Amino acid sequence: MKIVVLVKYVPDATADRQFESDHTVDRAGVPGLLSELDEYAVEQALQLKEKAEGEDVEVVALTVGPEAAAEAVKKALQMGADSGVHVTDEAIAGSDYLATSQVLAAAVRKVGESGAVDLVLCGMASTDASGSVVPAMLAERLDLPQVTLGSVIERQGDQVRIKRDGDTSTEVIGATLPIVLSVTDQSGEARYPSFKGIMAAKKKPVETWSLADLGVDAGEVGLDAAWSKVEAAEARPPRTQGEIVTDEDGSGATALVDFLASKKFI
Amino acid sequence: MTGRSPFELFAVDTLLDDEERAMRDAVRRFVDERVRPEVGGWYEAASLPVRELATELGDLGVLGMHLEGYGCAGTSATAYGLACLELEAGDSGLRSLVSVQGSLAMYALHRWGSEEHKQEWLPRMAAGEAIGCFGLTEPDAGSDPGSMRTRARRDGDDWVLSGTKMWITNGSVADVAVVWAQTEVDGRDRVRGFVVPTDTPGFSAPEITRKMSLRASVTSELVLDGARLPASAMLPEADGLAGPLSCLGEARFGIVFGALGAARDCLEVALAYAEERQVFGRSLSAYQLTQAKLADCSLELGKGMLLALHLGRLKDAGRLRPEQVSLGKLNNVREALAVARECRTVLGAAGITQEYPMMRHANNLESVLTYEGTSEVHQLVIGQALTGHSAFR
Questions:
Q1: How far apart are CA A219 and CA B85, in angstroms?
Q2: Is residue A168 part of a domain?
Q3: Residue B1 confidence (pLDDT) above 70
Q4: pLDDT averaged over chain B?
Q5: pLDDT tens by residue, B339-348
């Protein structure tokens, strides 16, 4: 069984995040890391591997991004993934969801050349763009069924049962592999790399592919081919000080009620 | 206002590679999540859940991490040092547990043991399923281990051990003890090492209680009352005091880094407290006298880290000499203790409470200053290296 986990290198949310002059996110000049939400997908892949007694399960961590994005693959390898693929090409910079899913689909197909891919696992969203649409787009491009936002995954052979928690109900969905599956942050805490994992990761194979390797036309991806563009971005203005109500004559409660009513909170 | 951390000031991260940062972060997270919330309680109750912690540390890969094979991670010595630093930022007792397991007991078996010793013990010890201790010091033999009274007497093929070891970390919870004893070879005394399973009849390990330091650590006496061992129990490769002293060198190396962890914890707390605390209408950290203290502490912490990393690189290159380890241990423990005390003054009376870690770290560091070679012994080691004169006796 072969599982491809999509891992994204995102700017560290605890650091200052910047935009480039073309209003794309600065991914090169800021500290980055494996998107926390993707760690859950890696964790689920590793759990499927560990639960598959006697069966050989290969977990491939796949990322698309600039040179530094190799860090996301490395983290997945340290956690326990078997091998990595890093798709990097200057022409990809600024790609929208459509182009990103196109590159990912080509990469998944290429991974499948050395043995069919049974499961593509994704996080529920990235922690930078938060689009959540790539899994669905990827499923469409790969012509695979998709199940999104899984919180519990159970597998027997090529059958999987996925629990999906909604606001008003919980669904259990049965599916036959291969599928594209995204998992939520409720699916189980992601493990931290052990020292043995960190040491072993140094020896695991990572392939680096360009658009040409994937047979993707550079003109179809990147900022110029994007269907939507950010035209302007500016930092949120600093918060202004709130209004202070000093209650000297018992009118404080009335002032609060008036405020809440004016904002239509009550 | 918020500023840079002391290690950021020294750009310490630029001196570490990716793997080293990843391992450091893993231990830091373990300490933050598992140790910090509970360590104050362990210290007050003078009890440490060694078994639980050992398996968790084993899962992480910390135990014997810098050893090769037998289930050990095989990291660099520098990475081991960084792990010690993060552990000791939690508590010196936790770092002691790991030092004794990895650098004393496991290292002794790995370096001096037979293949059978290694196969039998190292994988379980790396996993934290078996706990080890190391018996060298005695009630009347500390800095002069050669005057030990514990003897191993030959009886047929067996060895029979009698004597008492003192100040043995992990002793009462250990599954195996590496015990050093005098043996008579051709009419002369030689120190040899023995692998003693702690269920051996005649072995007992009463705990030493009523400590004012390292309260979150198990400290014991080892009593060997005619403990009978097969011939195979002797460490075949260690002949003479060089055996145990090599193990101490390993543990000292970890302390060079570890002590800085305790100091960093104190300094971080002092920085945060001084920022919050209002005195005469403004933040305590905006006063010159406070800043002088914080600057001096940061300077010592950063200098100590540069020294530790330098020694780590030398060790990884196989070029670290014993007197260089002494430089690191003497300086970094001494300065860590000074930093803990200075940071306590920043907190005023609050600094003496259990709400803050300064007194716990400072009290712990009194032990760390003494064990694995007292500060005086390290001064003499350095003095001998400088002058050529041995002034130990």
A1: 51
A2: yes
A3: no
A4: 96
A5: 999 999 999 9
Amino acid in the structure at residue A177: L
Residue B372 among the catalytic residues: yes
Which has the higher per-residue pLDDT, B378 or A129?
A: B378
Amino acid at B182: Q
Count of domains forming chain A:
1
Residues of chain B found within 8 Å of residue A202, distances taken between Cβ atoms: 19
Express each pLDDT in A192-241 by its tens digit: 899 989 999 999 999 999 999 999 999 999 999 999 888 888 888 888 88
Interchain contact, A198 vs B59, CB within 8 Å: no
Question: What tens digit of pLDDT does each residue of A30-80 get?
Answer: 788 899 999 999 999 999 999 998 899 999 999 999 999 999 999 999 999
Name which of A198, A203, A204 to mutate to probe chain B: the one with the most chain B Cβ atoms within 10 A of its Cβ.
Answer: A198
- Provide CB contacts within 8 A for B340, sequence distance 6+: B262, B263, B266, B358, B361, B362, B365
Tell me if B60 and A192 make a contact (CB, 8 A cut-off).
yes
- Option in A74, A194, A199 nearest B60 (CB): A194
- How much is the pTM? 0.86
For the stretch A236-253, pLDDT in tens is: 888 888 888 888 888 889
User: Catalytic residue among B88, B221, B250, B372, which?
Assistant: B372
Interface of A with B (CB under 8 A): 71, 74-75, 78, 192-199, 202
CA of B332 to nearest chain A CA: how many angstroms apart? 26
Which residues lie closer than 8 Å to B295 by C-beta, 6 or more apart? none
Q: Check which CATH number belongs to the domain holding A7 and give it.
A: 3.40.50.620
Burial class of residue A226 in the structure, from the number of CB atoms within 10 Å of its CB (0-12 exposed, 13-18 middle, 19+ buried): middle
Residues 6+ apart with CB under 8 A from B117: B109, B195, B235
* DSSP for residue A126: -
Distance from CA of A183 to the nearest CA of B (A): 24
Domain assignment present for residue A42? The answer is: yes
| Residue A246: inside a domain | no
- The domain in which residue A93 lies consists of 2-225
- The predicted complex's ipTM stands at 0.76
pLDDT 10s digits, B184-213 = 988 889 999 999 999 999 999 999 999 999
Q: For residue range A153-185, what is the model confidence (pLDDT) as tens digits?
A: 999 999 999 999 888 999 999 999 999 999 999
Angle between helices B242-276 and B288-316 (to 10 degrees): 150
Report CB contact under 8 Å: B19, A199. yes
- Count of pairs with CB atoms under 8 A, one residue in A, one in B: 39
* A15–chain B nearest CA distance, Å: 13
Select the residue of A75, A194, A202 nearest B61 (Cβ to Cβ).
A194
A162 forms beta bridges with: A153, A173
Contact state of A194 with B59 under an 8 Å Cβ cutoff: yes
B2 pLDDT higher than 70: no
Task: Write out chain A residues lying below 8 Å of B73, CB-based.
Answer: 194-196, 198-199
- Name chain A contacts of B78, Cβ cutoff 8 Å: none
Nearest to B73 among A75, A192, A196 (CB): A196
Q: Sketch out chain B's domains with CATH numbers.
A: 6-126 (1.10.540.10), 132-240 (2.40.110.10), 243-387 (1.20.140.10)
Strands (DSSP E) found in chain A: 2-6, 9-11, 32-34, 58-64, 83-87, 119-123, 146-156, 159-165, 170-176, 179-183, 206-209
Would you say residue A192 lies in a domain? yes
Rounded to a whole number of angstroms, the distance from the CA of B62 to the nearest CA of chain A is 7
